[in-house]
């Protein structure tokens, strides 16, 4: 799976974010140049004093503020515009999108669990059976990992390989229950232990 290639949305966001940054810098330079010209005219008419020096510092501060405000504030706008663009494109294809951020959320999906008929499931996976030491071990009440004919060192290796090669973790939910959190496959393996 190629994770280095950027999606069309990421490319558009980078282009739009770069455009906002560029225009923010241009606006900042224009404001600074205009206030600098005004300051030069003021200094040539009134002469050099502390008040004029303060005006020059204020002009520089305003220019910096425009850059600081324009760049981060432009990025959420570019995200909203790109999402609106993708929703309108999907509408042209006959897809109804009720929530504007849905296409972006769907773009971040890593796994979709389906049955053999390709219907979406609850993402509640379970180990049904496994193969070790030339034995098929079914995960049933009387024949689990801890009540099977495997050697104890093989059982330890299976437990360690599940725990050390898994990003799922156990967390406490809002009802003070311990629940596994992570991808459906890894949660199924954790519950198997």
Write the layout of secondary structure elements.
Blueprint: H1 8-46, H2 50-92, H3 102-107, E1 129-132, E2 135-138, H4 152-164, E3 169-172, E4 178-181, H5 184-192
Antiparallel strand pairs: 1-2, 3-4
Mean pLDDT: 76
Number of domain modules? 2
N- to C-terminal distance: 29 Å
Percentage of residues in strands? 5-15%
- Return the structural class: mainly alpha
H/E element sequence = HHHEEHEEH
Report on the structure:
With 193 residues, this protein is mainly alpha-helical. It has two domains: 8-107; 129-192, no CATH class. 57% of the residues lie in helices and 8% in strands. It is elongated and about 100 Å long. The mean pLDDT is 76.
Tags for this model:
mainly alpha, two-stranded antiparallel ribbon, single chain, 5 helices, 193 residues, 8% strand
State the gist of this model:
With about 190 residues, this protein is mainly alpha-helical.
């Amino acid at each position: 799976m190629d994770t280095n290639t950027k999606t069309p949305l990421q490319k558009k966001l980078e282009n739009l974010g770069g455009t906002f940054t560029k225009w923010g810098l241009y606006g900042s330079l224009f404001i600074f140049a205009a206030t600098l010209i005004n300051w030069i005219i003021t200094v040539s008419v009134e002469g050099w004093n502390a008040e004029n020096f303060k005006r020059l510092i204020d002009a520089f501060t305003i220019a910096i503020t425009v850059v600081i405000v324009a760049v981060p504030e432009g990025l959420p706008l570019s995200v909203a515009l790109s999402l609106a663009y993708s929703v309108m494109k999907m509408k042209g294809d006959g897809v109804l999108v009720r929530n504007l951020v849905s296409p972006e959320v769907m773009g971040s999906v890593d796994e979709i669990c389906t049955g053999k008929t390709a219907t979406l499931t609850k993402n509640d996976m379970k180990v049904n059976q496994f193969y070790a030491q030339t034995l098929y071990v079914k995960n049933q009440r009387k024949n689990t990992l801890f009540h099977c004919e495997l050697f104890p060192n093989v059982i330890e290796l299976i437990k360690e390989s599940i725990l050390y090669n898994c990003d799922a973790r156990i967390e406490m939910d809002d009802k003070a229950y311990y629940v596994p959190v992570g991808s459906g496959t890894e949660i199924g393996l954790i519950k198997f232990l």
